[in-house]
Each structure stands twice: as structure tokens, then as C-alpha cells.
Amino acid sequence: MEAFDGVLEANMVLKTLDLSGNPIGDEGIKCLCDILVNNTGIQKLQLNSVDLGDEGAKAIAELLKKNSTLRALELNNNMIDYSGFTSLAGALLENKTIRNFHLNGNYGGALGANALAKGLEGNKSLRELHLHGNSIGDEGIRSLISSLSSHKAVHLTNMFFLGKITLLDFGNNSITAKGAFHVAEYIKRSKNLLWVNLYMNDIGDENYTSILGVKLHWYKILKIYQGAEKIADALKENQTVTTIDL
Length: 246
Description:
- The chain is an alpha/beta fold.
- It is 34% helix and 13% strand.
- The chain has a 9-stranded parallel sheet, with no helix packed on it.
- Strand 8, helix 6 and strand 9 (195-198) form a beta-alpha-beta unit.
- Helix 4 (109-121) packs parallel to helix 5 (137-149).
């Protein structure tokens, strides 16, 4: 990370920094965050599979509290558990600009999801939440959906809609029909949700219902593993999800 010192601080042209696949570790992440704290150019930071743990997540959380330019953060396939999720949740309460947040393939569990939910309650900028493969279960889903349901829409003159989630990835999270019910209720109320992934869960409803969508502004996908009658019913009242992939 020392090689970047002085370079990234002064470089305001670079918009994306992808260090995925490098065994940086927590100490390396701490150094990187110290370097990036004064950078106002990078909008997308990709740190997938970099041996990142809770201490590294804490350093990133501190960076997020001070950073106002980062729009997308990818922390997929690392070793972040409840403690790291708690740190990141605290950062979401203060950060006003992050839009896409990726935490796929970590160890959040239900406790991590509960902690993250508290951060989401106060965050109105997030548009995409990726939590694939975190074993959050029904309790974690309930907490997350509850926090997202508390958001109020804000319409700005530049046409950005803050506080409006458009994508939720809850695939491979040990969710049953009980958890799917909470998602279904959220789909009913949301006018902005465009893509939901519930693939590889334990919803287990054999009543397949396919609803063919139409092309609106984008093609979007709702992915459901082995059906889900409750979610299918919810889609009857939803006007934004446009394609289902069973």
C-alpha cells in the first residue's frame, strides 16, 4: 500500500479503484483508508476477496464517515462478521452519498443483519443492497425490511430519488416462507424496487406463478428459487418489477 501513498491523494482523475483478489489483509486496508481519506475523485472502490476482516471493515467504516464522493463499495467474499457489520452500519448513518453497497459472501448472520438494519434506518442515499450468502435467515430479513420500510422518498431537482431502494440481493441466505412474507409485503408497498434476488433459499413453495413483465426504463429481474406464492401475490400489486426468472 505504501506504493500508493502520495499518488492517490493527489490523483483526482481516477474514478474506480479495483484491488480485488489481492491478499491485502486488515493492515493493508488500514493503510489504504488512510491514503484515501483525502481523495475526492474515486467513486467506486472494489475490495473483493482481499482477506478483509472486522478490523479492516472498521477502517473502511471510518473512511465512509469522512468520504463524500464514493458511490459504490464492494466488499464481497471476505471475512466480515457481526462486529464488522456493526462498524459499517454506523458509517451508513453518517454517509450521505453511498449508493451501491456489496457485502456478498461474508459472515454477517442474523446479528449482522440486525446491526446493518439500524444503519439503514438513517441512510437515505442507498439504492442497491447486496447481501448474497450471509446466512441472515428470517430474523435478519425481518429487521432489514423493517428498516427499509421506514424510508421516506425525497424528490430532488436533479431527478435523483434518494431513500429509494431499487435492488435487493438476498440470495442464498437460509430464508424460508416466513422471511419471504416480509419481502412480499415490502414489494407491495415499494414503487421503486426493480430487482430482487431470493435465489437459493428455502422458500419451498411449489405453486409457481409467472408474471411476464414489460419493458419500462430498464429490464429488471426478480429471481425466486422454487416459487413463492406470497411473493407472486405481492407482484400483482407491484408496477415496477418487470421480469421474473424462476
